Structure formats: structure tokens, C-alpha cells
Amino acid sequence: MKNMSMKNLYSNHNNSKREYFSLYMIVLIFNIVATFLICNKVLAQKEMFVAPVVVSRIVQMDVLQPVNMVGTVFPLRESIVACEIEGLVVEFPVKRGDYVKKEQVLAKLRTRSLEIQLKGVKADEHLALIEYERAKELYEGEAISHSELDEFETKLVAQEAEVEGVEDSIGKCTITAPFDGKIIEEHTEVGQWLDKGEEVVSMIELDYVKVRVPVPEKYIQNLKVGDECKVSFSALGGITRNGNIIHIVPQANARGRTFPVYIKLDNKDGMIRSGMFAEATFDIGPLLSATMMLKDGVVRRGGREFIYLEVDGKVTEVTIRTGIAYKNLIQIMGEVKPGHDVVVRGNERLLDAQNVQVTGRIDPDI
Fold it and tell me: In angstroms, rounded to a whole number, what is the distance separating the alpha carbons of residues 41 and 181?
């Protein structure tokens, strides 16, 4: 009896294993069929959908190789703001590190004595005006000569000039920022007496910066004001900014035979700091025969760089490597040849072997 129970238990166990195996196979087959149907559907949709694209010709051309040079960042402008009149500082609302706008108040001097003086000269001006008006009436009645009238007019003009002078002095008691920038040094404080010409603050403009690059004499003839270049900053994770040459100093450094070249960069985000090292890239090296295409044709996805070649209404995905950039072109290396058409518009969502319709062409301007 005991043997019979053991046999039944063993038989039930085998049946359960067969049932689980059968269920597993059914699920597996279902997944395979579903995957097959989905793939076929995607392929069918790809074949049916004709994507509109714009193409461009791949060309072979000679380009100047890039040359990298190290430079230093400077503020676009820097100023030591001084007072134009002597006086006692009664307000000093800024501090080191503050960002100030053009015409923002940096300091105020005491104006009480000047305001008292202004009342006096304005009273004299008013009296001179009354005397001049009376003199005009006398002149019109031929009671005084024209030269006597001129004396009264001259006195009035002199009093008006005195009023303007005192008002100008009062205006100079308010010292304002000459441009948008940051305060980097404080030279005074409330309660301090300032003589004419004494320093109030030092400030720099960093909304734009300039990078000074010493360029060797063998390259200087290849550069001109207005040329574009790229500047990268290793301290900022290698970020790159596009800039333009704004000044080329015609005097070489006697020791290194290098010419200072200044590049202007946008810095409205404030990331670039004065004194940082920078690496500028100029396209002034030896000529290189390179396979080039419009930059817009390069697709970057999943850590890869590739392009879509168009042939007879169908695209082929080709892996490439990029090299030298020149204006709106980029050097490409890989299984590509000059003369082929590459998709430069509408390539973002293409798939390999997809049907396309060419709706336009933008060939490189060489």
C-alpha cells in the first residue's frame, strides 16, 4: 500500500513538470510570434512611409588645419572710478562683488554747503535778470546806450554760469557706475573725506570678456580683425565659446616674438572669470585635403556619429568620424566618398534603408 502511494506521488510530480514545461513553451512561442509580427509591422511601415528630406553633396577640398594656442581671460573693460569733486562720503551703498548697472549710484558726497551756495547764486541771478529787463526798457526809451545794455546782459550771463557751475558741482557729488559690471575693490567708506580725483571703487565688465593670445610671428599674417575662432576652458569642463578677433597688436613681444591677439567672447551667464586660462583654436595651419560636408548632416545618437546617404530614393546609414570644422562644414572619415548625397534636413528620425523623397538641395559653398 505504501509503494502504491509513492508511485502515485511520483506520477503527479512528473505530470506537473510536463504541464509547466508545456506552459513555458506556449509563452515562448507566443513571444517569438509577437516579436516577429511587430518587426514585420515596423519594417512595413518603414517601407510604406516616404520621408521628405533635403540633401547636400559631399565634397573634397583643401582646408586650413586648426592650430591651438593658450591665452588668458581679461575683462572687456575695467575702470577705477574716481570722484570729480572733494567732499565727505555720506552714502556708499555698494560692496566688493556687487553687480551694478550703468548709472547706478556708487557713492554720494555731502552737498549741504553747495545747496546753500546755490541759493545765493540763484538770488544773484534773479536780481541780474530784473536789472537786465529794466535796462531793456530804458534802452527802448533811449535812456541808456547799447553798450550799457550789454553790460547788464553780460552780468546776467555770468550769474547764470555761476548757477550752472554750482548745480554741476552738486551733480558730481553723486558718483555713478560708468558701465554694467562688478565691483572688485572698495577704496572708500562712509565718513571718509575724498579729495578731487581720489578713487571710489574699481570695477570690471564681464558680460563680455576678451582673451589675450600670444600668436607666433609665422601665423600672424593669416589673422585679421573680425575672424571667427573657438575658445575652450578646461577649468569649466571644456566648454567652448565662439568669438571674434577684435584687436591685433602690431608690436611683437621682444622675448617670445609673439603678437598679442584679443578675442571677444559673450559671457552673459558669468561662467568665464577674469584670469582664467583659455585655449583658442585658429584655422591657420597647413592645408589639408579633406572630405567635407555640411555639419547638419551628422547625426549623433547612442554615443555614435553617423550619416544617411541618399541613393535612388532610399537612405543608407553609414558610421563616420568627424574631424576638422571649417565654417559650416565638417570633415568626415569612414566609408564615404566625395560626390555622394547626404541628408542634411529631416535626418533626425530616419531609419536605415528607409524610403525618402528629396525635396531640396543645399550644396556647400566652396
Answer: 61
| 239-297: pLDDT as tens digits | 999 999 999 999 998 888 899 999 999 999 989 999 999 999 998 888 889 999 999 99
Cβ atoms of residues 295 and 227 within 8 Å: no
What is the helix (H) or strand (E) element at residue 255, kind and residue range?
Answer: none
Residue ranges and CATH numbers for the domains of the chain are 48-64+289-361 (2.40.420.20), 67-75+202-284 (2.40.30.170), 81-201 (2.40.50.100)
Helix (H, G, I), strand (E, B) or coil at 144: coil
- Alpha-carbon distance of 88 to 52, in angstroms, equals 74
User: 194: how many CB neighbours lie within 10 A of its CB?
Assistant: 20
**275-293 per-residue burial string, b: 16 or more CB within 10 A, e: under 16:** ebebbbbbbbbeeeebbbb
Sign of CA dihedral 213, 214, 218, 222: positive
The backbone torsions φ and ψ at residue 333, rounded to the nearest 5 degrees and listed phi first, read -130, 135
pTM: 0.64
- Residue range 150-192, pLDDT digits in tens: 999 999 999 999 999 999 999 999 999 999 999 999 999 999 9
Residue 327: pLDDT band with limits 50, 70, 90: confident
